[in-house]
Design brief:
The chain has 390 residues and is an alpha+beta fold. 59% of the residues lie in helices and 13% in strands. Strands 1-3-4-6-5 form a five-stranded mixed β-barrel. β5 and β6 form a beta hairpin. α3 packs antiparallel against α4 and α4 runs antiparallel to α6. The longest helix is centred in the middle third of the chain and has 46 residues. The radius of gyration is 26 Å and the shape is globular. The two termini are 16 Å apart.
Length: 390
């Protein structure tokens, strides 16, 4: 079997697993009772029951809607939009808006409708399609593999990891296993079943393991618990009293940085692959020094990646503290801010150390391989001399 055939067989295997995951239910949680869910156009709004307290709205809107899809298309019904007073959860509607409506039809006629938000599902599909097209246009076959890896990662998290946590599996070992699975699939899909892919995988996992160890240590030193995460407390109120929220928080730290770790590891592995391809007689130490020089340059910009990512998602929180004139020491000492500081800095340890880890692994892997086999598929001449991963 040629290198190219192995690549396509691996991709087909991943696609098959994604299809299989779509039909499994690991959590075993009964679905919430629901009826029909279809698009509807709001034709009229009754705000007489809405209670306003400055900018906060509570109680309920009553909407008259006309169904746009489903077996009752064209029929009209009354829909309730409950307002809880939480602006991050509530939506306030105007006539002409298209929303998702959930309703029942006990006598064949729509009734008991509830508004489930502005209809966004089609736009989400359009956005996914545009993302895939752009990925294919820029990266070609590699982009197709990257898109497949993206779908695989989403399916594994949603259909396997989250359900396993709900079933009471230990979060840290389970998280490490899931990260190892995702890292392996992504690295070997994008980097190929080659030394480049192997170096990326091993370098990434070393960085993730270091991050996991540091997260365990500093979470204990910081006296943090997992309830600092949004919706964490709601899990307990939902009946899952046995969940270890602190370990879930620790798992979230190394899972969150694993993507950036893989990114940097792939950059280093691809660089060392190219160096060995162009200079097959390059010695081990020279090869590793060259890889480290590239690693230093990439790490210089990558260190701010997690800072910007996490800070960007908490802009309003920092603005609230600033608006209240609170001092910096009080801000940084707050448990939920300290949790983000830990998340950023511990994750950055993994991002920084993955460069030397990958350089070391790649240097040893290529030490006895005069040509970069990962590039063999791109050159017929090199394809004839490819060697299997040892």
């Amino acid at each position: 079997m040629t290198h190219l055939q192995r690549e396509w067989l691996f991709s087909l295997l991943i696609a098959g697993i994604c299809i299989g995951l779509a039909f499994i239910d690991v959590a075993g949680v009964p679905q919430a009772p629901s009826g029909y869910r279809f698009r509807a156009l709001i034709t009229d709004v009754d705000n007489s029951r809405v209670q306003r307290h400055l900018i906060v709205k509570t109680n309920a809107q009553v909407l008259n809607v006309r169904l746009l899809d489903g077996p009752h298309e064209g029929q009209e019904l009354s829909v309730v939009n409950m307002l809880t007073g939480k602006m991050e959860l509530d939506e306030f509607y105007e006539p002409g808006a298209v929303i998702l409506v959930e309703y029942h039809a006990p006598d064949g006629k729509p009734a008991n409708g509830t508004a489930r938000g502005h209809y966004r599902l089609r736009l989400q599909l359009v956005l996914i399609g545009l993302f895939t097209i752009l990925l294919l246009a820029v990266a070609g076959v590699t982009g197709l593999k990257a898109a497949l890896s993206f779908v695989f990662a989403a399916m594994v998290l949603w259909k396997v990891f989250f359900p396993l946590l709900l079933r009471g599996y230990p979060p840290i070992p389970t998280g490490l296993g899931i990260v190892a699975l995702l890292t392996g699939v992504i690295c070997f899909s994008v980097g190929g079943l080659s030394r480049r892919g192997t170096a990326t995988f091993l370098g990434s996992m070393l960085g993730v393991l270091l991050t996991c160890g540091l997260a365990l240590w500093f979470t204990s030193l910081f006296r943090l618990h997992g309830a600092v995460r949004p919706f964490a407390e709601m899990l307990l109120y939902s009946g899952y009293y046995g969940l270890n929220l602190t370990e879930i928080f620790i798992a979230s730290v190394f899972i969150a940085c694993s993507g950036a770790v893989m990114d940097l590891a792939m950059d280093i592995a691809a660089t060392m692959d190219e160096l060995k391809l162009k200079h097959p007689d390059m010695g081990l130490m020279e090869h590793m020094r060259s890889g480290l020089r590239v690693g230093r340059a990439v790490t210089g910009t990558m260190t701010t990646t997690l800072l910007l990512a996490y800070s960007g998602s908490h802009i309003t929180m920092f603005m609230v503290f600033m608006a209240k004139g609170l001092p910096a020491d009080r801000l940084l000492n707050a448990p939920f801010v300290a949790a983000e500081v830990l998340n950023i800095l511990v994750g950055s340890f993994g991002v920084i150390t993955v460069a030397p880890f990958t350089v070391l692994v790649a240097g040893l892997l290529y030490r006895f391989n005069p040509r970069a086999e990962a590039q063999a598929v791109e050159s017929p001449a090199l394809a004839r001399v490819e060697q299997p991963v040892q």
